[in-house]
TrEMBL record:
PANTHER family: CHROMOSOMAL REPLICATION INITIATOR PROTEIN DNAA. This is Chromosomal replication initiator protein DnaA. Keywords: ATP-binding, Cytoplasm, DNA replication, DNA-binding, Lipid-binding, Nucleotide-binding. CDD domains: AAA (cd00009), Bac_DnaA_C (cd06571). The keyword DNA-binding applies. ATP binds at residues 160, 162-164. Belongs to the DnaA family.
Length: 457
């Protein structure tokens, strides 16, 4: 393979990975050689090499092969550690060749030290439902790139609910609408990495300058810097400098600002100054919507794939943990079905996804049931377990006993123990009492239905 081939392949890679990723990660690669199926590239730092390998290695290999080179593996090595093939010229060569300075990525103005954006994470591919509509609307607003109306936008929610997806979508959208904007997306971990590196290499001024020169800064998973004092400090200053210049900031975390432990109070309060929106756990409709969208995508890839009625509904109902798991399940199902060339039926899904389905089975505890019922009837949790016999407490207690029997695999004596050491006959009596009442008391029947639904998510 020649440098020319690599030139062509690079062109192709722009389309695959997007311009921003291309400029940040592909352009700096220097092709060294191709021997025995291994294509080697020089990279500025080992971090850089790791990153490219992990995120773009497959793309690069595929494109090289596509261009006719026979490549089994792609390797990245730091320039300085490579044994020099020829004696080094006496004069410092790199400056003349306009190679990126190996150890100084932060100093170079076009070398935005951002993380690669996933080209699949766009607004188009984001399914909007009740649990995420607010976050989506706020992200859309930021992506318009108009005057800054809230700063920062703080997105939070559990793992796999779409925070990173939304942030990448904002970046993609801004890049198309306003290509001149300098949009920097990175994880808090990378922020710290960059910061520590700058400290080590005494380039803290470059670091500061770089981060203060962006138009939009997005920091993902900010909870990561909690407890890391000097990184927090620097983050705080960067944050303030950008807010002062009226530059948009978007932050994500796994919980609300006030709930991040070991995060300085002044940072918490700064983060709360903008718009704080949370992504709620998915509901059934959203999960089904996401599955349907993925199926459409797969359809174009694997022709002739048939999914029996009810399979998607089954998955949306059973896999409630997070969207990543849901996607993983579908991917596996499709791969399996296309390998064996069979229609995707409910049985196939149950077989092929047994482990995921088992792991997703919610294990409801008696304590959760007691808590929920106590909440619902406005009584204390301690009264659930305690000895009081007044109707307003005894009835909810019996309801909790009934639900514990219905919704958990626990035996009557076990349930009795969790209700303050009551005898199993007391539990049985409670369960029967509720069964009787349900038939006549429609209010109670409604309550039970609601509680059951809430408990089973
Ligand atoms: P988080 O950063 O909140 O942990 P991600 O943004 O990485 O979650 O989302 C996990 C996976 O789920 C990604 O592949 C993402 O595309 C997908 N996903 C999450 N929410 C949605 C949604 N509303 N529509 C489509 N895909 C989604
Ligand atoms: Mg994320």
């Amino acid at each position: 393979m020649t440098n020319e081939t690599w030139g062509l392949v690079r062109e192709e890679l722009i389309k695959r990975v997007g311009r921003n990723n291309y400029v940040t990660w592909i352009e700096p690669l220097k092709f060294s050689d191709l021997r025995q199926g291994v294509a080697r590239f020089e990279v500025p730092t080992s971090f850089f090499g790791d990153w490219v390998s992990r995120n773009f290695g497959d793309h690069i290999r595929a494109q090289l092969n596509h261009a006719g080179a026979q490549v089994d593996r792609v390797e990245f090595a730091v320039s300085a550690t490579r044994p020099a093939a020829a004696p080094q010229p006496a004069a410092p060569a790199p400056a003349a060749t306009r190679a990126r300075p190996a150890a100084r990525p932060a100093a170079d103005a076009d070398d935005m030290p951002g993380a690669p954006l996933d080209s699949r994470f766009t607004f188009d591919s984001f399914v909007v439902g009740k649990p995420n509509e607010l976050a989506h609307a706020a992200a859309r607003r930021v992506a318009e790139g108009g005057p800054v109306t809230f700063n920062p936008l703080f997105l939070y929610g559990g793992v796999g609910l779409g925070k990173t997806h939304l942030m990448h979508a904002i970046a993609h959208e801004l890049q198309t609408r306003q290509p001149h904007l300098r949009v920097l997306y990175l994880s808090a971990e990378q922020f710290m990495y960059r910061f520590v590196q700058a400290l080590r290499e005494r380039q803290i001024m470059d670091f500061k300058e770089l981060f203060r020169s962006v138009d939009v800064l997005m920091v993902d998973d900010v909870q990561f810097i909690a407890g890391k004092d000097s990184t927090q400090e620097e983050f705080f200053h960067t944050f303030n400098a950008l807010v002062d210049q009226n530059k948009q900031i978007v932050i994500s975390a796994d919980r609300a600002p006030g709930e991040i432990k070991d995060l300085e109070d002044r940072i918490k309060s700064r983060l709360q100054c903008g718009l704080v929106v949370d992504l709620h756990p998915t509901d059934y409709e959203l999960r089904l919507g996401i599955l349907q969208q993925k199926v459409e995508l797969y359809r174009s890839q694997y022709r002739g794939l048939v999914i029996a009625d009810g399979v998607l509904e089954f998955l949306a109902h059973r896999i409630t943990t997070n969207v990543r798991v849901l996607e993983g399940a579908l991917t596996r199902l499709f791969a399996f079905a296309s390998l064996v060339g069979r229609e995707i039926t409910l049985e196939l899904a149950q077989d092929c996804l047994a482990d995921i389905l088992r792991a997703s089975d919610r294990k409801l505890t008696i304590e959760e049931i007691q808590r929920k019922v106590a909440d619902h009837y406005n009584i204390r949790l301690s009264d659930m377990i305690g000895p009081k016999r007044v109707r307003t407490i005894a009835r909810p207690r019996q309801i909790a006993m009934y639900l514990a029997k219905q919704l958990t695999p626990r035996s009557l004596p076990e349930i009795g123990r969790r209700f303050g050491g009551r005898d199993h006959t007391t539990i049985m009596h409670g369960v029967r009492k509720i069964e009787e009442l349900m038939a006549t008391d429609s209010q109670l029947a409604d309550d039970l239905q609601l509680l059951r639904r809430q408990l089973q998510g």
